[in-house]
Every structure is written in C-alpha cells, then in structure tokens.
Amino acid sequence: MSTITRMLQTHPVGGDTSEALRACIQACAECAATCTSCADACLAEDMVAELRRCIRTNLDCADVCAVTGAVLSRLTEPSAEVQRAVLQACAAACRACAQECEKHADMHEHCRVCADACRRCEQACEELLATL
Amino acid sequence: MSTITRMLQTHPVGGDTSEALRACIQACAECAATCTSCADACLAEDMVAELRRCIRTNLDCADVCAVTGAVLSRLTEPSAEVQRAVLQACAAACRACAQECEKHADMHEHCRVCADACRRCEQACEELLATL
Amino acid sequence: MSTITRMLQTHPVGGDTSEALRACIQACAECAATCTSCADACLAEDMVAELRRCIRTNLDCADVCAVTGAVLSRLTEPSAEVQRAVLQACAAACRACAQECEKHADMHEHCRVCADACRRCEQACEELLATL
Amino acid sequence: MSTITRMLQTHPVGGDTSEALRACIQACAECAATCTSCADACLAEDMVAELRRCIRTNLDCADVCAVTGAVLSRLTEPSAEVQRAVLQACAAACRACAQECEKHADMHEHCRVCADACRRCEQACEELLATL
User: Fold this and answer.
1) Residues B18-57: pLDDT tens digits?
2) ∠ at Cα B114 (B103, B101), nearest 5°?
3) How do the pLDDT tens digits run along chain A, 132 residues long?
4) Does ipTM exceed 0.90?
5) Mutation target vs B (from A31, A51, A60; most B CBs, 10 A cutoff)
6) Three-state SS across chain A?
7) CB-based burial label for C88 (10 Å; 0-12, 13-18, 19+)
8) Hey, what domains does chain B have and what are their CATH numbers?
9) In sequence order, which residues have a C-beta less than 8 Å from that of residue B10 and are 6 or more positions away?
10) DSSP B78
11) CB B18 within 8 A of CB B75
12) Residues 6+ apart with CB under 8 A from B107
C-alpha cells in the first residue's frame, strides 16, 4: 500500500515521518483485513465449535488493529501518551490472536497466514513503541 | 441503552456479568457517539483553525471507545490481558480528549457535554480495570 | 442516549435537526451494539454450527449500523446522495439480520432482542429516508 | 496486500472468489486508509476553514470503505442484497469524496492522491456490482 507512504509524504506535517511509523500503519491495515477474513474462514469450518476462541480473538484483533492504524496515521497534534497506550493494546491483541491461530496453523492454512500477519503487526508495534 | 443489559443477560455465558462491565460498555457507546459529534461540531465552528487538536483528539477517542465497547461486549473466551490493555488505551484516549475539550468548554457547549462524556467513560474504564 | 440529542442541539448547524434524524442515530447505535453482542452470544451457543448465517449477518449489521450512525451525526456539509445510499444499505443490513434472528427467536432470547433492535433500526432508516 | 488474496484462497468456501471481489476488497482497504490520512492532512492545512467539506467527506468515505471491505471479505453465507446495497453506498461515498478532493488537487497533493484512490475504489465497486 504505497498510497499510504505517498499520503504521509504529502501531509503538511508529514515530512519527518519515521519508517517505523509507516511500517506499523501498513502492518495494522494488513492485520485488520487478515483477521476479519480469518474470523469468517473459521466460521465456515466444519469444526467451528472448536474455533470459538479463534473467532473471538480474530474479531478483537481486527477491531484494535484498524483503530491503531487510524490513530497512527493522524499526524496532526498527536498525543504520545495515547499513541503508546493504543500501541500496547494492539501488541496485546496481536499476540493473543497469533497464539490462538498458531494452535490451528497445521490444520487451517488461513490460521497460519493470519498468525504470521499478527506476529508482524505485534513486532511493528513493539518497534514503533521503542522509538516513542 | 437497556437493550445491551438484556443482551448480556440472555447471553449463554452472560450470567455473572458485573455492573462495572455493563456500565463501561454503555459509557463507551455514549462517548464514541459524543466524540464523533463533537469532532463535527468543532469542524463547523468559525474558529476551526484553533480546534485542530480538539478534532483530532475527538476522532481518536471515538475510534478507541467504539472498539473498547465491542471488545468488552464479547463474553465468549475473553482474554484478561487484551481487555486490560484496551481499557488502558481507552482511559488514555478519554483523558486526552477530556483535557482538550475542557479548554473549550466555556466557549463551546458541545465541548462541555463531550468533556463530561469522556470523564464518565475514563472513570468507567478505571473502575472496570480495578476489578480485572 | 440523550447525550446525542444535547450534542446535536449545541452543534453550530444543528438547530433544525429533525426528530427522524435523532431517532435514526440512536437506533443505529443501539442496533450496532446489539448485533455485536448477538454475534458473540450465537458463537457461545452449543448449536453454533447452525448459527453461522446469524453470526455473519450480525457482524455485517453491526458494522453498517455503526457507520450509518456516524455519517448521520455529521451535520457539517452533508451530501444527501451519500446519506440516502448509506441509509438504504443500513435498512438492507437490518432487514437481513432481523429475518435471520427471527428464525432463532423462539430458541434464543438474544436473537429475539436483536431482531427487535434490527426492525426498529430498519424502520428508523426508512422513516428518515422518506424525509430526505 | 497479497495477504488478502492468500486468505481468500485458503478460506473453506473461497475457492471461486472472483478477481472483481479481490480487487474491490483491496481498493476499499486502500481508500479507507487514504481518506483517513487526507482528512488529517486537510485538518493540518492553513486553509482548514475552506476544507471543511473535504474533511467531512473524507471521514464518511473512510468509514464506508472500511465497512464495505469487511462485508465483502466475509464469504460465509453472504446476502447478495446486502452486498449490493453496501457497494452502492460505497460507490456514492467514493464519488462524493473524489469530486471534493479533485477541487483541491492542484493545491494539495494529498487531495490528488486521495481523489485517485476514491476513483479507483468507485470503479472497483461498480465493476463488482456488475457481476452480482
């Protein structure tokens, strides 16, 4: 999604946007879309009754990642305290979802793809947190 | 919004839902709607250029409150770690938005109403956090 | 949620807000919260495999109602064309969700409460559409 | 975002997902992120008072695109009626936002990038609608 990079570059106060911020916004968008899809894929599985926790965790992670991406992409008058708290929530949601999806990764390829997206987003949040 | 109370009561695992949880879900819904409206009211003010930080903080707070309400209203297989991190993010977003709206509360009644909703939601998050 | 009424009243351009608009914003907020909760309640039921369509329809309806409430509560420079299209999408999502929840209303009280909220929101959308 | 393509391919009922659907999900994600960023960029501009309509339209378009992407990426038990209504709302929101951003495209590069994303998403919605 190079469009986001171009948007940040053309933003009036976006001149000094860090690579860690851009990477995190992109990881959040990807993880939100992946978790929305994984919740739905789990819902369609024959063994849906055993995937309740996975579906629930996917829904939480999709919601939290979408909001984190939105908060981070707002460059006007940011609050470092809010950014940090949101990033910590996002890392927690990604970790919980990755842990759950990893349990089903051998059986369901969508859970493997989703676990990878969650781990990438968790790491992107941690790396951005380290710079704030 | 007594509908939410009825939904939690009729949920298969909702029997022991705490009053703190119900109050927080309701406060999040109210704060999300209020902040969405306050961002738009600020945008319509003549002095919009001086309300940039208020609009931005309102948008963040609306997003974070909406997601917090959704995460909390999911009773199936919850993760206390995710709940805590999301509640801390919500309290931080509400505090930042309340502080900003309070600066304009004398001049803009919508900022006063919004600051009150943010403080109520911040407190509801803190009270629920104290029980987790 | 009388807070929303107060917000609309104190909005710079909110003076002539119609009762149909206020009622629709409130119905959207209530329906979004109810559908989020019903999706989760269905997920916790023993017969979750038979509630796939209900869960999916609940998730769609929750998403569409939340966005419709946000679009409607923005009074600054509205587009009647966008409002109408969003209201039609919301009425369609509410109708689909009500039809599905009504099938399970005898067995699951949360589906009965949710079907009622969806029908109220569908009607509120239709009534507002009739004024635009 | 090839991750979404992989998610749809590994979905239990995703085998016959059309290219038009995949393209539309991706266009919605890109447009949502772009409009969120453009609203914030406009807010930071000196001439923010002249960009009120652009900010408002951006916020609507971001919300509607995000929900449209979520509805479309759910493949389990879809409702063609809901899909069509949501796609029409998304096309309307994208058209309105593109029209507004195009007015400022010569002055603000972020509005030019955003108008392009809106036009691409509008077209992706129309193309998918033609197949439903």
Assistant:
1) 999 999 999 999 999 999 999 999 999 999 999 999 999 9
2) 15
3) 578 899 999 999 987 789 999 999 999 999 999 999 999 999 999 999 999 999 999 999 999 999 999 999 999 999 999 999 999 999 999 999 999 999 999 999 999 999 999 999 999 999 999 999
4) yes
5) A60
6) CHHHHHHHHHCCCCCCCCHHHHHHHHHHHHHHHHHHHHHHHHHHCCCHHHHHHHHHHHHHHHHHHHHHHHHHHCCCCCCHHHHHHHHHHHHHHHHHHHHHHHHCCCCCHHHHHHHHHHHHHHHHHHHHHCCC
7) buried
8) 3-10+18-129 (1.20.1270.360)
9) C41, C108, C109, C110, C113
10) -
11) no
12) none
Mutation for C interface: A43, A50, A54, A55, most C CBs within 10 A: A43
CA distance C85 to chain B (A): 20
Q: Which two tokens stand for residue D58?
A: 């951006």
Distance CA C109, CA C94 (A): 18
* Contact in structure between B18 and B131 (CB atoms under 8 Å): yes
Rounded to an integer, what distance in angstroms lies between the CA atom of residue C100 and that of residue C111? 9
Q: Assign residue B18 a region: left if phi > 0, alpha if psi is -120 to 50, beta otherwise?
A: beta
| Block residue for tokens 């709302």 | D89
Element (H, E) at C35: helix C19-44
Q: CA nearest D56: which of C64, C13, C74?
A: C74
C-alpha distances (whole Å) from C56 to each of B4, B110, D71 are 19, 37, 9
- Rounded CA separation A44/A58 (Å): 14
Per-residue pLDDT, C55? 98
Percent of chain B with pLDDT over 70: 99
Closest by Cβ to C37, choosing from B4, B43, B110 = B4
Residues A91 and D34: their CA atoms lie apart, in Å, by 23
User: Residue for token digits 């946007």?
Assistant: A17
Token pair, residue D26, equals: 């991706």
Q: Which amino acid is at C121?
A: C
**Residue A18 Cα, gap to closest chain C Cα (Å):** 31
The minimum CA-CA distance between A67 and chain B, rounded to whole Å, is: 6
